[in-house]
Design a protein that fits this description.
Blueprint lengths: L6 E3 L2 H11 L4 E9 L7 E9 L2 E5 L8 H7 L5 E4 L3 H11 L6 E3 H6 L9 H9 L19 H27 L7 H7 L25 H20 L3 H4 L2 H10 L4 H4 L7 H19 L17 H21 L3 H4 L2 H8 L10 H15 L3 E6 L2 E6 L1
Parallel strand pairs: 1-4, 2-5, 5-6
Antiparallel strand pairs: 2-3, 3-4, 7-8
Helix pairs in contact: 5-6, 8-10, 8-12, 13-15, 13-16
Length: 385
């Protein structure tokens, strides 16, 4: 692949020229390269953009300001086409405090067209275009400069083929009458609250939190909130402030003095020196909170055996209709959603929009006795009662 196939933009005049070519585009393919192993916030290292006649790799580390390009990306008249967009959108949120809209996520669209749940970009390119992508640069440190031609060609391919994938998915959605099915999904994907840090809720991301109860959760929540705030302020990974295992141990043991704190195997000496007194103070502060302020885990009742059987029957409808429509089961509904339906909840994605038409209304009819299941010639059938 020759360098003439793409532009490398690392000066202000080149960026100005690129922006002029991009302005007014009805859509553009977009991807980012970033690192975050040593930071809290993702560090944008390269931004790739493409239209039908243009591919460009923009270097934000070399440019004094990429604001003019962001203005184009945030133009509501331009659809931003991305694959597995969440991490890219998080970067843009931190750059401007909002997410560019509208977007089209090819991974989500592919799952609606029978390509499986969370299909990777390389898998989709190979399936739709019969092209096998080079994976040799997947572990590149994109913050190092200079970037060589091989690295830039690899990055350019991330948007080069995205253009074709987008066109094919759009055509297939139109052929099946599903162009508008994903509108709400894409709107939800762009909600800013998905990407905004929320320190008071940081404890919910800690694996093992569900094993704690009562004041233990209060201690964990306070420690996790403090750690999140520290990580944000210093722009360092959470685990560099304090590891998850340490927070869980502190919540379980709730040490009251340095002697008890020092007995924790998960407490590293450097952490003890730097934050030991603070950790003890946070534990004491959380223990002093009134019981009514303690965080609560969602109460999940155990379904009766008859209800579990009903969920199985509802799940059979979801799988059947997903198979018939070429939609992944996970894209339609998770089992937990059907359990909530049995428990009386009705404000669920399955009962709204395109999901309701594919399977949701039938599932509700089965639950409320208006629909029955039968087997004929080895095939599962539904019929009105």
């Amino acid at each position: 692949m020759s360098a003439a196939d793409w532009l490398y933009v690392d000066t202000a005049p080149e960026l100005e020229a690129l922006v002029a070519r991009l302005q007014g585009s009805p859509w553009l393919a977009l991807d980012t390269e970033f690192i975050r192993e040593r930071t809290y916030y993702p560090q944008l290292c390269l931004l790739q953009v493409a239209t039908p006649g243009l591919i460009a790799c923009v270097d934000p580390l070399a440019l004094p300001d990429i604001g003019p390009l962001l203005d184009v990306l945030y133009d509501p008249a331009t659809v931003k086409v991305l694959h597995a967009a969440s991490q890219d959108l998080e970067i843009f949120y931190h750059l401007r405090g909002a997410v560019p809209q509208p977007v089209f996520d090819t991974q989500i669209a592919a799952s609606l067209l029978g390509h499986g749940e969370q299909a990777g970009y390389g898998t989709l390119v190979e399936s739709l275009l019969s092209i096998t992508l080079d994976k040799s640069q997947s572990r590149t440190d994109w913050a190092q400069r200079p970037l060589d031609a091989t690295q830039l060609a690899y990055a350019a391919d991330d948007v080069r083929h995205l253009r074709s994938v987008y066109g094919l998915l759009l055509d297939e959605l139109a052929r099946l009458g599903r162009r508008d099915w994903l509108e709400q999904d894409f709107i939800d994907l762009c909600r800013s609250d998905r990407y905004a840090p929320n320190p008071p809720e940081a404890w919910r991301r800690i694996k093992g939190a569900r094993m704690l109860r009562g004041v233990q959760l209060a201690v964990l929540a306070r420690l996790a909130e403090w750690r999140e705030q520290q990580a944000m302020a210093s722009d360092r990974p959470r685990k560099w402030i304090a590891a998850d295992d340490l927070l869980l141990d502190l919540a379980r043991v709730q040490p009251r003095d340095e002697a008890q704190l020092g007995k924790l195997r998960t407490l590293e000496a450097a952490t003890a020196r730097r934050h030991g007194a603070t950790l003890l103070a946070l534990v004491a502060e959380a223990r002093a909170q009134p019981k009514e302020s303690w965080p609560q885990l969602p109460q999940r009742r155990q379904l009766a055996a008859e209800q579990e059987a009903l969920v199985d029957a509802m799940m059979a409808i979801v799988r059947l209709r997903g198979l018939q429509k070429g939609v992944s089961t996970a894209q339609l509904a998770a089992r937990r959603e059907l359990e909530q339906l049995v428990e009386g909840e009705r404000d669920l994605p399955l009962l709204h929009g395109w999901r309701a038409g594919v399977a949701g209304r039938e599932v509700l009819d089965l639950l409320e006795g208006r629909l029955a299941l039968a087997v004929r010639d080895g095939q599962l059938l539904t019929f009105d009662r």
